[in-house]
C-alpha cells in the first residue's frame, strides 16, 4: 500500500532534534536564519524580475473615437465593470453624485417649464394649484443642483461659481452634466473614508462631503414630491425621453440610503470636454495586473482637431457610431445629419496613416433606440435615400450601415488590416459581455503580434 505523500511533508522550520545541546541549537538556528535569508533574497529577485518584465512589456493604448453622444463613456464603464470589477465597485460612491445631479437637473428643467406663461411655450403653461405647490416644495432642489455641480467640477466652496446660485433657465437650458477632461472628479466626491492626510486636500474634501450629505438629505426629503411631479408630467415631457430611467426610479434614487446599481452607473450621463485618460489595471483573465490605457477624446466638432496628437503608438481604435441618430442633426450644425457626420468621421479616421498599424473595432451603438424608432414608424429611407424600397427593420438597417462602413474601411485604409464590427447596446450588460470578450481578445492578439510574440 502506498503511504500518503502528506505524511512526509515536514513542517518548516523543522522541530528541534531530541537531546539537542545549546551549542547544537545555536548552530541550527544560524543555519535556519541563513536559509531564510537566501529564500527571501530569491523571492525579492523574482519579484524584481517580474516588475522589470512588466515595465518592458509595451503598454496597451486604446483610442476611443466617435461624435458626441455616441456612447464612448458608457463603453469605458462597461469595460471597467467587466475587467476591473473591484475598481468599478469602489467608484460607485462617485457615480452616486453624478446620478443625483442628473435627476435634479431633470426635475429643475420641468419646474422651469411649469413657470413659463402659456405665451412662452405653447401647451405648457397654466400651472394649476397642484403644480404651484410642487414648485414651491421642490424649490430647494435649485440649491442642491449648485452643490452637486460644484462638487463634481472641483470649484472652491464658499465662493461664487460660474454655475453659481444661478441655474441656467429655459430656453437653452441643458440637462447635460459636463466636466473638463483630466479633472479627476471621482476623487473629489468620494466619501469621508477616502480622505487622505494632506491638510489642504482633506480640508476641501471634508467640506465637499459635508455639502453632499446636506444635499442628499434635501433630496431624500423631496423624493415623494419628485414622484408626484413626474406622475403629472411624464406623458408631456417628450424632450426628456433620455431622462425617463432616473425619473421613473426617482423614489429609489433620491432615497438617503441609495447605492447605485450597475445599470444606474451605465445610464449616468456625464459629458467630457477635452481628453480624458483612463488607466485600467486588469483584474481578470490572463492580462491580470497589466495596465490598459484608454483615451476618450471629445467628439464635438470643435474638439476633433486635437485628435491627431493622440494617434501615435496606438494599438487599437474603438470607433462608436450611434446608428439611432439617422433622423437627427448635429448640435453644432443643424444642416448636417448625425449619421452622415459619423460616417464621414469614420472615413477620415480610416485614412490616417498614423493609425495604419492599429486594429480597428467598429461599434454600431444604440441599436435598442434604433429598433424603437423603426417600430414607431420612423422610416429610415426618408433620411437615407439610397435605402429606398428596403425593409424598415433593425436587422436590415443595421446590415446596410455595417456594409457601408466596411466598404469605407476597405477603400480608405492605408493598408490592409483587420476590422471587427459589432452591433451594440452599451447599457445591455449581457450583450456587451460577449462583445467585450471579443474586443479584449482581438486587441491582445494585435499587441502580441506587434511585439513579435506571435
Automatic annotation (TrEMBL):
Gene Ontology terms for molecular function: G protein-coupled receptor binding; G-protein beta/gamma-subunit complex binding; GTP binding; GTPase activity; metal ion binding
Record-listed Mg(2+) binding positions: 272
InterPro entries in alphabetical order: Gprotein_alpha_su, GproteinA_insert, P-loop_NTPase
A cellular component term, taken from the record's GO annotations: heterotrimeric G-protein complex
Keywords in alphabetical order: GTP-binding, Magnesium, Metal-binding, Nucleotide-binding, Transducer
GO biological process, one term: adenylate cyclase-modulating G protein-coupled receptor signaling pathway
Disordered: annotated span: 1-41
Keyword Nucleotide-binding: yes
Gene3D superfamilies, per the entry: P-loop containing nucleotide triphosphate hydrolases (3.40.50.300)
Compositional bias annotation for Basic and acidic residues: 22-41
UniProt protein name: Uncharacterized protein
